[in-house]
Amino acid sequence: MILVKTEAGQQVLKDRSVPLSPRQRTAFILFDGKRSVDDVIAAGAGIAREDIDQMVSLGLLSPPGGAAAEAPAADSAEAAPKASSGRSSQQRYTDAYPIATRLTASLGLKGVRLNLQVEGAGGYEDLVALAPKIRAAVGPEKAEPLDRALYD
Q1: Could you tell me if 75 and 26 are in contact, meaning their C-beta atoms sit under 8 angstroms apart?
Q2: Which of 27, 69, 124, 130 could form a cystine bridge with 47, CB 3.0-4.6 A?
Q3: Using an 8 Å Cβ cutoff, are 64 and 33 in contact?
Q4: Local structure of 46: helix, strand or coil
């Protein structure tokens, strides 16, 4: 399977809003739409398939054209609600995660616990639950991009 960096992945590459280990970052850079997953693993960067799966689940990598690596089940919570913008909850999570990470990382030591909660968020619902805490910590003005990513 061939993977490419998503828009969110391109942004993470620039601003490092999602912490990647050195080996993950090296492998991440190798995903250029020409190399397969097996080629990247064989490149000797020390990357495991689980690392690649994690980058896919974070929305940093996807198959060319944005097709899902695995189609979600029809009754999956991730595939469920779409708001007026037409974005799925998975896309909202993909859009909001780097923003939430960047906001909580900007809090320094006082935001470490919140940052860890964001990094542990497994989906859209988890980020929605953390949004009020993030908003309270950074202020409504700075939290506006996160609100747009989650709710627009």
Answers
A1: no
A2: 27
A3: yes
A4: coil
